[in-house]
Amino acid sequence: MTEALTSAIESEAGRLAGITDPVERFHAVREFRQKLARGDRSGKELEQAVVSELKEGRPWREVGELLGVSGSRAEQIAKGRGPLRHAAESTPRAGAAEGHAPDTSTPEQP
Known about the structure:
4 helices, 59% helix, flat, mainly alpha
């Protein structure tokens, strides 16, 4: 990402945070996020086009090596599929949303 784009996003986020009316701020933030999502979709389409261009005459393994990803990931990008979920994005433990602490006790030994 370019420094100018990062700066623009941060500037807009700061402006949005300064909107005093909560309802107005909510709607402004929602519109901002929708614009970011449209930009993200455009970026993904550009990635797909690049990967498809690189694929011409090459096996997926080689395309992946060129891009620094696995061959199967390169194929996923070309087909518009997202990556597998990372451990950091995994489902939270049961009870986390309710604010319950994890059970750290150890079972009694017989």
